[in-house]
Amino acid sequence: MAKITLSKLRHSYYPNPKSANDYALKEIDLDWKDGGAYALLGPSGCGKSTLLNIISGLLVPSEGQILFDDQDVTHLPPDQRNIAQVFQFPVIYDTMTVYDNLAFPLRNRGVDAMRVDQRVREIAEMLEVTDLLDQRAAGLSPDNKQKISMGRGLVRDDVNVVMFDEPLTVIDPHLKWKLRSKLKELHQRVNATMIYVTHDQTEALTFADQVVVMQQGEVVQIGTPVELFDRPAHTFVGHFIGSPGMNVLPCTLDAGMAMFNGTAVELEGPVPLGASGNFEIGIRPEFVTISDSGIPAVVRKVADVGRHLVVEAMAGDHKISAVMNGTTPEKGAQVHLNFHPDQTRLYSDGWLISKAGGKS
């Protein structure tokens, strides 16, 4: 396995890019530790697949370097990078048995038959497909086909990194949680460096130790699932992660106080000196409560999402969501909303500027 370093990486599909808008990937600097589980998370078109193709060697970046264990591999072809990749659609040989599919990457590299058999059976046991080893792959269910595709990526123990590109796209929703759990278990058992590309926050947050959130070719935050939820570094992260996402509300500053719709809102800490830009308040729905005083609002709807209720209220023209349990106000009710101060963030031009702990 390998530590992966991306240094000053940028990529444009134009031969002579002239401005930042010509780059599909803005400048990226990343270090992924040997043996870690990582996710690239973001909406379609944000640059995830471009970055994955650069790491795998299918694309040469316009600028910057890719290093595996501090060795520059920027211009090496895929077959010299020692990478295994699992794609959206299962890549298996239907006419072969499951055993032969799993054995193929090893036989192709001249591994002796005894080691091939040992490794195939180890991976089959991890994937819980030992009873399918003699079956032709053509007859497998879609989830088992994807298991075999994953197994082909994991069967080699000499790869630098295993990369997964939206591997659960074609899997039925009720089976996805099983494969997500299985993949997490596999990482813990084989201790390989893994990179998982997805637009699905649930997949990213349940699989990865560290998540790289991307938007419009830019890395907007890198962190653990808890860090991304607790302190989004950008309003996009707040919107994108969480269900419902973070409330992001325009505000102004008056004598160091954040003002929303004429009401002063207490922040997690003082406004930084010299702060400027377009200011917004960020507050998770989990930390919005209804009380006798606070921001005046009118309840627009109440949604039962199973584990809790989500109250949507309008404060002027702005929607605010609150996660609640128990009794909730009815549609049309006039209420007052309070924000937990220690969870109320201040953003400028989309970026977090307030600091936890009450110090600027």
Automatic annotation (TrEMBL):
Q: What is this protein called?
A: ABC transporter ATP-binding protein
Q: List, alphabetically, the SMART domains matched.
A: AAA (SM00382)
What top-level branch of life does the organism fall under? Answer: Bacteria
Q: Which InterPro entries match?
A: AAA+_ATPase, ABC_transporter-like_ATP-bd, ABC_transpr_FbpC, ABC_transpr_MalK/UgpC-like, Mo/tungstate-bd_C_term_dom, NA-bd_OB-fold, P-loop_NTPase, Transp-assoc_OB_typ2
The organism's lineage?
Answer: Bacteria, Pseudomonadati, Pseudomonadota, Alphaproteobacteria, Rhodobacterales
List the record's Gene Ontology CC terms alphabetically: ATP-binding cassette (ABC) transporter complex, substrate-binding subunit-containing
Q: Which UniProt keywords apply?
A: ATP-binding, Cell membrane, Membrane, Nucleotide-binding, Transport
Q: Which SUPFAM superfamilies match?
A: MOP-like, P-loop containing nucleoside triphosphate hydrolases
Task: Spell out the family assignment given in the record's similarity comment.
Answer: Belongs to the ABC transporter superfamily.
